[in-house]
Every structure is written in structure tokens, then in C-alpha cells.
Amino acid sequence: MSAVAETGVGELGRVVIVGGGAAGGRFADALRLGGYDGPVTLLGDELHPPYHRPLLSKEVLSSVREIDDILLNSEEDLAAREIVFRAGLRATGIDRPRQVVRTSSGVQVPYDTLVIATGVRPRVLGSAPLGARVHTLHTSVECLDLREALDGARSLTVIGSGFIGSEIAASARELGRDVELISSTRFALQNAMGPWAGARISRLHEERGVRVRPLSRVVDLEADDEGVRVELADGQVIASDLAVIGVGSNPTTGWLEDSGLEIIDGVIVDAHGRTADSRIWAIGDVARRREADGSTHRVEHWTSATEQADGLARHLLGKRPSPIPRVDYLWTDLYGTKIQMLGHLRPGATEHVLLDEKSRFIVAYTVDDRVVGVVAQGIAGRFMRFRVPVASGSRIADLRELAA
User: Fold this and answer.
1) Is residue 173 helix, strand or coil?
2) Using one digit for the tens of pLDDT, what is the confidence trace for 139-176?
3) Which structural domain, as residue segments, surrounds residue 25?
4) CB neighbours of residue 15 within 10 Å
């Protein structure tokens, strides 16, 4: 049990959460719902309260919803729960001896318990000319900028075939745009979901009219008033009205460089989210958890971020852990179908196809005959039955019965 939990709720003191995304907002809520009545301050570098970020590349980009429709908390909700929300305030550093957070405005915010939830930022390609023609998508502002640009465009090149790239490609294609999807791997979403599932997802894109370019590497990207030109390593040049870069993300840790915390592709924490400083914790996409075997693992997905927030709040409040087994859960919506994953791929994992139909599939991954992950399409209502078997490392024979 942590030093905080041992000494009781009152020892949390002034709680400061840096990061106004899903993890930070959920943690603030969970503290209040768990009975904590001490000071809670939420610092967000965006102007909106926490919102459902995964919907940016789907329903907001497609104009089905607006930003106000996907808020997780309104400012009135936060105020009613006595959570102080400081919008548009970017953290620039920590003074650990003085226990204060330095900010872009010069204001210093004192803390007794600090929770880092600053998430990630999109990677860019070298000196890519971001602007009216070349976009990334992570924030509400970036989403609305891309949506406006798509209104006047006929064609789009998406660089990167992971979650964000696949979702943008699908949304743009459903809006009637010509879409090229450049994939560094043989199949879309292959790194996250494996080659068999990736092949199915690439086929889904192609059936909807997206041109997928597998095993392709971008060597140059130019933009001007006429459009965008993307040059590939094989010499091919793709011309389009717009381009979106979706080649992954980097954890937002630059502001922690002089903090003395252990930073290795994220903030290193233990199983509960605690750093080497007993007053500082990290959750969400920015947190890299050290496992019992010494390895580290970081997950970039909304569901994991919110579950980490709930788990940390329970831990700090001295409550029992959730009875729901902890296991990574990922999902995406493409062309009206949900694709879900439990667990994560490990080197050398063996694929087992449990269901293979035109619009539905289930594939499991095992290491030493123990299940480490399951990916499925088109079985949203049944999928969570695999949660316990994945969390417990069941044998593949047990999953075959569930999939039947």
C-alpha cells in the first residue's frame, strides 16, 4: 500500500492534475465520486473541458457532432463538483523541492499530490509543412481545421495506417473524397492488431474505395497553394489536395526534462501509477508502467486512460481495486463496423482464427499456448466475454468454446 493510502484520504492535500484530457478529467471525477473533498485543480492546455477525443476522427470530422456534443464534463459540471479547471494553461515544469507546477503564464500552482496526465502529441515527418494543406489530428482545433479543409477538397493522402490514419481515411472516404492510405506495414493496423486482422482491415478499406499503398515509406512531402505532393521511396509521387500525417505519437514529457523523474518514452511508474517521487503519479497515454518482470508497457487508448484514472483514484482513497480484471482494451469504428481488441501483441505470438466470415471475424494470439490477445470485428455485444480469459492467460481451447 502506498504512503498516501496508509495515512488516509486527508494526506492527499492539494491535488493538482496536469492534463485536461480523458485521464485527467476522469481522475478528478473519480476522486469526488470516491468521497474526497479536498482541493482539486485540473490544468488543461486546451480551451475546452475534457472531451471524448476518439470521436474527433469519426463523428466530429464527419460533421455528425460538434465539440460541445462530445464533452465529458461541462465547465458547470466541474464547478458543481468543486473542481477548479484552469483552461489554456500549459505546464512548463515542476519544482519538486517546493512542490509547485510552473506554467506558461508564469503562474506557479502548488501541490501536495501531483498527477501527470499530459497524454501524447502526434509525430511529424521531419520538416513537414504543417498548415492549410498538411494536417495532424489530435486536438479539437486540429479536427475543425481539417474538417474545414476537407470541405473544399476532392482528394486526401493519409500517411500512416494505424488507428488515427485508418479512422481519418474511413471518415474522408465516407464524405466522398478520393483517399490514398500510405502504410509502412503490409497491412493497415498490423502493428496493433496483427497481420491476419490487418489484412482484413486493409481489405475493408479497399472495398470502400480507399487505395492502400502497403510497405511504403515517405521520403519527401511538399505543399503549396495548388496542393500536396508526397514522394515515396520507390520514386512514386502522389498528388492530392490535402495530406494528413498519422504516423504515431510521442508522450508529452518535454516539460518534465529537468524534473529528475525517470522518463523513457513516457513517465516510468509502478503498477499503481506512482513515480519514484511518492507525491507524483502518472496515468493515461503518458504513463509507462513497469511490469513484474522488469519490462515496461505504455498504452495509447482512451479506454485504458480512463481505467487507469479510476484505478489510481481507488488506490489513493484506500479502496479495494475494481473487481474487473485489468487488461488493455482497444477499439475503432470503420465504415460503421466496430473492431475491438483485448490484450496486446507480443513478439512471437501465434495467430488462431476462431471465426472468419465476410463481415465478422475473431482471431486470438497466444504465447506458449496462453492467450495474450483477441481481435474481433462485428461482434460488439459478445466481445467482452473474452476479457477474463485474456486477463488470466487462458488456453486457446477455452476461447474456441466462447467463440462458437
Assistant:
1) helix
2) 999 999 999 999 999 999 999 999 999 999 999 999 99
3) 3-121+250-316
4) 22
